[in-house]
Amino acid sequence: MFRPDPISWLQFATFWVIVFVGAIALIRAVRAQGDGKSAKKSTTSAVGILIQCIGFVSCATGPVRVVLPWNAPLSLICAIAVALFGGGAIAIFVAATRAMGKNWSVVARMRSDHELVRTGPFAIVRHPIYFALFLYMLSLAVAFGHSAQLLLAVPLYSAGTIVRIREDAPSAAILRREVHARFFRRVAETKERKLFQRAIEVNHAQVMPAFRLENHLAT
Question: Which of 79, 116, 165, 209 has the fewest other C-beta atoms within 10 Å?
Fold first, then answer.
């Protein structure tokens, strides 16, 4: 068993505030995820979630040494780290789920009306929610004084994340092909529309002088 780092009640309590706020964000996201009609849920993704959870449990399990005064420099630094990691995780999660809208779900699924999301944090990171969960794990490790247990937790979490990413990859590839196909159709339609407008302009330029000459001769 890894020897825990000394912690204070300040950093420990800060983490539970993060847990409370994160739970509210998760409940809101679940309520807003839609009914999931015509959605195919992935069993493999559920396995990946299980492996990720084992990584979290391995990080949280073990004794806690609450021996530091709350105002000790190390206590203040660790409390700030807990708040930054945990707060950053919640902020990224909220932004990502809002960008995904009804496309988001805990277990990977493919809706009939699923769309490829490229806004919000997805414009910067391909898998922002997995990154948010990793930050949350770091917050937990610092709060519990279990930094050494990250040696076990990080590989487990990474393995679960890889499983989920590989499961999501085919669906994402299909969506990208659909987006590209729609893009090229719009480009082709735009070119055809411009050519048609150009043809009208050329025809107008050729017809109008003759029409004016005919009117002039008639008068």
Answer: 209
Nearest 5°: CA angle at 62, between 60 and 66?
95
Alpha carbon distance 60, 4 (integer Å): 11
pTM: 0.72
Dist. CA 209–CA 98, nearest whole Å: 58
Residues 6+ apart with CB under 8 A from 79: 8, 10, 11, 14
What CATH class does 6-168 carry? mainly alpha
Neighbours of 67 (CB within 10 A): 12
The full set of domain ranges for the chain reads 6-168
* DSSP 8-state code for residue 34: -
pLDDT in tens, 64-82: 999 999 999 999 999 999 9
Read off the tokens for 114.
Answer: 């699923």
Three-state secondary-structure class, residue 140: helix
